[in-house]
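In this section we walk through a basic example: taking a raw amino acid sequence and producing a predicted 3D structure, encoded as discrete structure tokens. The instruction is simple. Fold the sequence below.
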Amino acid sequence: QVQLVESGGGLVQPGGSLRLSCAASGRTISEYAMGWFRQAPGKEREFVAAINWRGGIRYADSVQGRFTISRDISKNTVYLQMNNLKPEDTAVYSCASDRRRLSTVIIDRGPDYDYWGQGTQVTVSS
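The resulting token sequence is shown next.
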């Protein structure tokens, strides 16, 4: 059974930083693309970033240059380093695993991911 567990969310002031973690079990992240998505109250879920099995990376335009996705294969964990946070980054952040094994195409659509974590709240406010 595949499980994804996020951690690292919290309250931070504008301009601050947070690092989210997504620990995976039941699926090897070195064989599947892993993505981060977020959903703010009253808004649709949106793609944030993803890393494929080869280490290729894609970011949403809104976070490019501020967020960094990375992974530690030995820990089967994916990270999202978030710097220069803005109030509009406030959302529940969830990690997800692409349903396709060894795919090099990085997809930004939620339905292409088959396993999801429970989400972690990130609030950016002064």
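Looking at the output, two observations stand out. The radius of gyration is 13 Å. Residues 23 and 77 are 4 Å apart (CA to CA). In the next section we compare this with other chains.
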